[in-house]
Design brief:
Dihydrodipicolinate Reductase, domain 2, globular, Rossmann fold, alpha/beta, 344 residues, 35% helix, 9-stranded mixed β-sheet
């Protein structure tokens, strides 16, 4: 297959449930990105996926890595299938853009980040909530300092996942495949976005449990108190046991304003009486269909990664930034298990 000069050569590994928004985003980026091939083990599913999204199938992962036009690999597999894929990509000098989480445990995630560092390849992690227009508008406000110092944080992720059709699927909600429950699989997006705006957490006190609404190995409900390095305090509630599911909400209370992100909508309430609204409310995948959200956030993140590789800068979401959210999740789970305050 001839490579179109000037376009960014990309190979895709994995074509399961989470691949749909990526496929749509890559379709919208055809003028910039040349998808050299998609590969997954299930040949029938691979054919169906490639036909649906008009993408070429790869003969093997090895063939993609041997293609000199492939500059990066987009990894969309479950986290238990990452180690060998990333190691082979790094050894072949291919950059890596990978779905969250980095791996099932922080220790394994650190190994992958270190492996990419040692190979000199860029590692980006998909956290598309950072790339919503409303999130970017709030990030700009925070960076400007116009709202003053941050004092309090409230994060709610009131999502729903059904037992039948979701947690009944083999591997779902297990440590072996997912690495955990609601925190590492669902709320990780909101936690990463929160940390990108607040700075690092310094301590947590949490309750983590599995409600009677689900039969699963890992947690489907977490509530906790948060302490941040900048002196702010916060509260967290994350669940997949809130039928029918609602949009996640993040509120930051500053000296001169309170900012609330609800799904793709930002409301700024200034203490002088002004109110500003940015963006439009959008479905965020909080209900029974986890893929019910737009693909433009993925498109923006893929574009950022491509530009980062081409201009030799770090992407906005990296393996190193992802380790912050992994460590926060570890602390919340440990606090819930041991019933004590955990310092990060």
């Amino acid at each position: 297959m001839a490579h179109e000069q000037g376009k960014f050569g990309l190979g895709v590994i994995g074509a399961g449930m989470g691949a749909k928004p990526h496929a749509l985003a890559l379709g919208a980026l055809r003028d910039k990105v040349d998808v050299r091939g998609v590969w997954r083990r299930n040949e029938e599913e691979l054919k169906r996926f490639c036909a649906e999204y008009e993408l070429p199938a790869a003969a093997s992962y090895e063939a993609l890595l041997a293609d000199p036009a492939v500059e990066a690999i987009l990894v969309l597999t479950p986290p238990n299938a990452r180690q060998d894929i990333v190691a082979a990509a790094a050894a072949a000098g291919k950059h890596v853009l990978m779905e969250k989480p980095v791996e099932r445990s922080t220790e394994a995630a650190q190994r992958l980040v270190a492996l990419c560092d040692a190979a000199g390849v860029t590692l980006g992690i998909i956290f598309q909530h950072r790339f919503r227009a409303a999130s970017e508008a709030l990030a700009a406000q925070v960076a400007s300092g116009a709202m003053g110092s941050l004092h309090a944080v409230h994060l709610t992720v009131p999502w729903w996942r059904p037992q039948q059709g979701y947690y009944d699927k083999p591997g779902r909600g297990t440590f072996a495949q997912d690495g955990g429950g609601v925190l590492i699989t669902q709320a990780i997006h909101s936690l990463d976005l929160m940390l990108s705006l607040t700075g690092p957490a310094s301590a947590v006190t949490a309750l983590a449990a599995t409600t009677g609404l689900h039969s699963m190995e890992t947690e489907d409900f977490v509530a906790g108190g948060l302490e941040f390095a900048n002196g702010a305090v916060g509260a967290l509630m994350a669940t997949t046991a809130n039928y029918p599911g609602a949009a996640e909400s993040l509120t930051l209370n500053f000296d001169r304003a309170s900012a609330t992100l609800t799904g793709g909508n930002l409301t700024l309430n200034w203490l002088d009486g002004r109110t500003e609204i940015v963006g439009e409310a959008s479905n965020s995948g909080g209900g029974a269909d986890p893929m019910a959200f737009p693909f433009d956030w993925h498109q923006a993140q893929i574009e950022d990664f491509v530009e980062a590789v081409r201009t030799h800068r770090q992407p906005r979401s990296t393996g190193h930034t992802a380790l912050h959210v992994h460590r926060l999740i570890d602390a919340l789970i440990l606090s819930g298990k041991e019933g004590r305050r955990i310092e990060l």
